[in-house]
């Protein structure tokens, strides 16, 4: 898994690209505090090489919790900036520091 951050000079926005290698998966989405944890809001597109990829514009100078949903199973990104415990999910969420 990979996270790429590209900060814009013209406005306080960071383009965050999420990449998830999941050849066998039918669907992958990224959910988090930036999209109300909506599993349909940010679905990633499957590339020919089997990687799912998508870009989200997020406001800079913020922290966001997130996870991936791969065929209905929630997983964390091992390249998250840090992790935070979530009592509601009874699991850790990945954290993006922008």
From TrEMBL:
- GO annotation (BP), single: carbohydrate metabolic process
**Top-rank taxon, per record:** Bacteria
What molecular function terms (GO) are annotated for this protein? hydrolase activity, hydrolyzing O-glycosyl compounds
- Family annotation (CDD domains): E_set_Isoamylase_like_N (cd07184)
What keywords tag this UniProt record?
Hydrolase
- Please state every residue range assigned to the domain named Glycoside hydrolase family 13 N-terminal: 15-84
Protein name in UniProt = Glycoside hydrolase
């Amino acid at each position: 898994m990979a996270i790429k951050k590209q900060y814009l000079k013209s406005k306080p926005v960071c383009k965050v690209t999420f990449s998830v290698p999941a050849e066998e998966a039918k669907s992958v989405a990224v959910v988090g505090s930036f999209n109300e944890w909506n599993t349909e809001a940010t679905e990633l597109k499957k590339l020919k090489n089997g990687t799912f990829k998508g870009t989200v514009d997020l406001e800079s100078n913020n922290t966001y919790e997130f996870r991936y949903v791969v065929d209905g199973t929630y997983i964390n990104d091992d390249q998250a900036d840090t992790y935070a415990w979530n009592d509601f999910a009874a699991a850790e969420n990945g954290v993006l520091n922008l």
